[in-house]
Amino acid sequence: MAGLRAGLIGLGMMGRHHARNLRAIDGVDLVAVADPAGDPHGVAGALPVLGSVEELIAQGVDYVVVATPTAYHEQIGLALAEAGVHALIEKPLAKDTGAARRLAEAFAAKGLVGATGHIERYNPALQNLRKRLENGDLGDLYQVQTRRQGPFPSRIADVGVVKDLASHDVDLTAWVTQREYELVGARTVSKAGREYEDMVSATCQLSGGLMSNHLVNWLSPTKERLTVVTGEKGMFVADTLTADLTFYANGLVATTWDDIAQFRGVSEGDVTRFAIAKPEPLRTEHENFRDAVLGKDADIVTMEQGARVVEVCEAMIESAATNRFIEVGAA
User: Fold this and answer.
1) What strands, in cross-sheet order, belong to the sheet with 63-66?
2) Which residue intervals define the domain Gfo/Idh/MocA-like oxidoreductase N-terminal in the entry (predicted)?
3) Statement to judge: residues 270 and 293 lie in one domain
4) Statement to judge: residues 113 and 128 lie in one domain
5) What digits encode the pLDDT tens for the residues 119-129?
6) Residue 157 and residue 37 in contact, taking contact as beta carbons nearer than 8 Å
7) Quick check: 268 pLDDT over 80?
């Protein structure tokens, strides 16, 4: 049985990894690639490098992965929707909320599978964390903290750190907790002389009163990717660089000295580092999208969810500019 005919547009840093995975997963054949700027990483192999999305569509593809700069996502995505081609579009879904919503509506109107490439959702540590939170392992949730810091990636030129990096944390926080953002406050700075911000500190409220804090920047000399969820029974720490998940339990040893017991709150308990399988997140993302195109059960980041992430990111930027908290609409 022939595999799904897949195309790829955008052959830059992310495009090369998408090409590798499209060639590796079962049931998919990478049949066409396109990039008007050429193929700097030599990922096309024997395939000709096409110059436009129209040429890609003409190859008779079933779906296309879009890994171009964000500014081109809407134009390319709308062309694919009009042609009846499913699409996985890299994050952020579009340059602004309006464009993201137009994409989501176009794919929904055609009955197509449209997804956003928020790869962190497929990190093994976060996938395991979501299951444990859903199972009630932490009890009532109190707070989510994320830290996503590191040097500036020269490949990013058309968005700031909020839409490029904080978008990961917005999606993963809503997904692992199964809550929606309601209120957003943030501060941003631009220290590197670029048009866009390169550091953000955000404090947010999600449904059910859950608070979240996000520290994100391109100004740190080392990479850090941490998600910390604190709740009634302790704290989970997910390191998405290493895909490790650790649980710090609240202690169960009673404090018999009454005068101290009333001030202590929780106490230190057992620490458990979970042994979990660690498949490549991008591979898992591609497998889920393939299954969605085939009509199977799959966990994809829908374009509606991708648009919601852009909305929250724009609320962070607006909050920093206006010095006030911004409400975000119901999903």
Assistant:
1) 49-50, 28-34, 4-9, 63-66, 86-90, 114-117
2) 5-114
3) no
4) no
5) 999 999 999 99
6) no
7) no
Residue 267 to residue 257: CA distance in whole angstroms: 14
- CB 87 within 8 Å of CB 81: yes
CATH of the domain at 320: 3.30.360.10
Could you tell me if 153 and 45 lie in one domain? no
| Residues 228 and 86 grouped into a single domain | no
| 316/181 same-domain check | yes
Contact 261, 144 (CB under 8 A): no
- 44 with 64, same domain: the answer is yes
Whether the CB-CB separation of 86 and 30 falls below 8 Å is answered with no
- What pTM value is reported for the model? 0.91
Is the domain of 275 the same as that of 289?
Answer: no
Handedness of CA 195, 196, 199, 202 (dihedral sign): positive
Q: What is the mean pLDDT of residues 261-269?
A: 63
DSSP 35-99: -TT--TT---TTS-EESSHHHHHTT--SEEEE-S-GGGHHHHHHHHHHTT-EEEEESSSSSSHHH
CATH value at residue 92: 3.40.50.720
CA dihedral 9, 11, 13, 19 (to 10 degrees): 80
Mean confidence (pLDDT) of the chain: 93
Angstrom distance (rounded) from CA 196 to CA 212: 23
Q: Among 181-195, 211-225, 231-245, 300-314, whose mean pLDDT is lowest?
A: 181-195
Burial 11-46 (b: 16+ CB within 10 A, else e): bbebbbbbbebbeebeebebbbbbbeeebeeebbee
Q: What is the mean pLDDT of residues 299-325?
A: 97
Q: What HEC string does 206-260 produce?
A: EHHHCEEEEEEECEEEEEEEEEEEEECCEEEEEECCCCEEEEEEECCCCCCCHHH
18-37 pLDDT, tens per residue?
Answer: 999 999 999 999 999 999 99
Q: Same domain, yes or no, for 293 and 199? A: no
Domain hosting residue 125, numbered range: 121-279+310-327
Dihedral sign computed on CA atoms, order 154, 287, 114, 8: positive
